[in-house]
Amino acid sequence: MCFNKEFGSLCNLNRDIKKVDSIPTDMIVAGKNTYVYDAHTYHTKVPPEGIEILIKHFTNEQDVVLDPFCGSGMTGVAAQRLNRKVLLSDISPAATFIAKQINTLVDADEYMAAINKILEKSSVLNKKLYTTTCRECGKETQILYTVWSYRLVCDQCNKDFLLWDVARKEGKTSRESKILTEFNCPHCGNFLKKRKLKRLSLEPVAIGYKCCTKSLKEKCCSLIDSDMKKIGEITYKNIPASLWYPQNEFYEGVNTRQPLLYGITSVDKAYFPRALWAFSYLWDEASRWEPKAVREKLIFTLTSLYQRITKFSEFRFWGGSGNIANYNVPQIINEQNVFLTFERKAKTIYLYLKNEHKFDSQNVQISTQSACRLSQLKDNSIDYVFTDPPFGSNINYSEMNYLWESWLKTYTDIKEEAIINKFQGKDKFAYGELMTQAWKEIYRVLKKDAWLTILFHNSSSAIWDELQKSIYNAGFCINGSMLFDKKHGTFKQFVSHNAVGFDLAICCQKKVPSSNLSVCLFDDTEKLIKNFVITQLHKNGYSSYVTHYEHVQRNDEINYRKLYSEWISSILDKSLVSIDFCQFKAIAQSTISK
Q1: Helix pair angle (273-287, 108-121), 10° resolution
Q2: Beta partners for 219?
Q3: Interacting residues of 303 by C-beta distance below 8 A, sequence separation 6+
Q4: Using an 8 Å Cβ cutoff, are 349 and 39 in contact?
Q5: How many CB atoms sit inside 10 A of residue 70's CB?
Q6: Phi–psi pair at 253, nearest 5 degrees
Q7: DSSP states of 19-49 as a string?
Q8: Can you tell me the distance from the alpha carbon of 519 to that of 521, in angstroms, rounded to the nearest whole number?
Q9: What percent of the chain has pLDDT over 70?
Q10: How many CA atoms, within 13 angstroms, populate the side-chain half-sphere of residue 388?
């Protein structure tokens, strides 16, 4: 483990905590579309504006706030904005690198000058790697992206075809265009589902560029001979030996199984040769930049690109590609121009640096270590803890951070990673034990009567039960909770009918629990849920539980996710949850249909 020797020196043991006898009662609502939220991707991020509400409620200015599962460091932003001191730690060195860069600022103009200088130096390589010929005027123009498609095999007639040729459905606008998930085989005419088909080779099928049209509208065209020749000439062997890039192998894990299945056996193979060449060139330039503070921000800009420039980037007709918490290898891939992606992201980070509060670097300390061992912190030294811990098996952080950490040359010590992961030999009980150790450490360092807020959600009652027991076993009293609405759901919440969409902010106090958690029989729980659903719909109005999906093709529906989160909030301090979201949803549906 990497320890910061100064970690904890901000604490003032003689300072009394703010006396708080109650918790906020209203739902916390905080959106994601802010400069700080957009500055760098991470698997789970909490909008700092929501955290600010809790910090302001539970602390005074100059109090010390701790987040031992800090992730991208949003707690630090919230605390610093409110003139609190803050200690951030995480077991992942990728997380603490990102958290440090988010919480320590540099001059925005100096940063942008460095970006522009690097882009200027890279212009020759950019032209070499990303140039095509305009199909209308015949002039050279810059490639924005290249589309790659897998060749699939029909499971009926055993003949192969390019998915791009068969599943592409283009509408009048990009939003109306899509890649079909089901279609007819071009050879035998049988109905096929693309996810069930065997993949063969991966082939380039189209490129995007802007050139001479009046509106400068982007054109997506088939490749010409010169494009194919360029792709054929750019191989891994062509990358100059002077440019370093990681070549360490992907280990077998929950999220690494798919890339391994499709031949992405090492980190370098996660990139097309052209993207790897461009990215390693930018990494080399950034790594040698002076001064150090700007150098780290340049590297931070590169790590922010994450999956967008890899083979995990799915093609979308409306542009771009998000970063998701798995290593899914799409059947149609978007190979983006790395230099343009770098420039776009730099402009976003520039806006954050330009508009964020001027932080005092003396008020934040960051350390890479397990939440189970906060040995630098003295007993009764922390005024408040806000944290967003791992949600059981929802996200495999060490696996997903492996891409970042391979470039940063430092890796997560997974021994005490609190997670459910069969490849690590950790089941729900191991997860519960590790969470108990973490809460015990937090209990030790918190001052008497101080508060811990845990942001959490899960669709599994087993995970909720392990969390509840771990909190009580550590000595905390759960004094209530409120819903935390991040406004915009995750991609998984839009496409999965069983994903839970609302977090709960669970408020715990360092005092002896008033009672033990009870366990209700299923029949009793079913009756309670039916009464709860009827009461909530009557109290808040039916329309407040209707969800309208603007960006995916789903009909309006009752927001059972919200009802489930409200149900958990109502019983969390009294009994174990003991019922999964899918079970709750079935009971609620039958209740409403009557």
Answers
A1: 130
A2: 209
A3: 40, 94, 97, 98, 404, 407, 408
A4: yes
A5: 29
A6: -155, -175
A7: ---S---SPEE--S-SHHHHHS--SS---HH
A8: 7
A9: 92
A10: 24
Q: Which amino acid is at 108?
A: A
For 398, counting Cβ atoms within 10 Å of its Cβ (0-12 exposed, 13-18 middle, 19+ buried), the class is buried
pLDDT at 161: 98
Phi, psi of 41 (to 5 degrees): -75, 150
The single-letter DSSP state of residue 4 is -
pLDDT score recorded for residue 175: 74
Q: Model confidence at 2, in pLDDT bands (50, 70, 90)? A: very low
Query: Taking a C-beta distance cutoff of 8 angstroms, is the pair 367, 92 a contact?
Result: no
Q: pTM surpassing 0.70?
A: yes
The residue-averaged pLDDT of 240-261 equals: 97
The C-alpha atoms of residue 132 and residue 208 are separated, in whole angstroms, by 9
- From the list 424, 422, 356, 327, the residue with the least C-alpha distance to 91 is 424
Q: What gap in Å lies between CA 453 and CA 384, rounded to an integer? A: 8
For 143-156, the pLDDT digits (tens) are 999 999 999 999 99
pLDDT band at 320 (very low <50, low <70, confident <90, very high): low
Distance CA 108, CA 262 (A): 41
Cβ contacts of residue 121 below 8 Å, gap of 6+?
A: 285
CB-based contact 189:234 (threshold 8 Å):
no
Contacts 24+ apart (CB under 8 A), 305-310: 305/279, 305/338, 305/341, 305/342, 305/345, 306/41, 306/403, 306/404, 307/403, 308/336, 308/341, 309/271, 309/275, 309/279, 309/335, 309/336, 309/338, 309/341, 310/270, 310/271, 310/275, 310/403
Helix and strand numbers (H, E) in the chain are 20, 20
Cβ distance 59 to 65 under 8 Å? Answer: yes
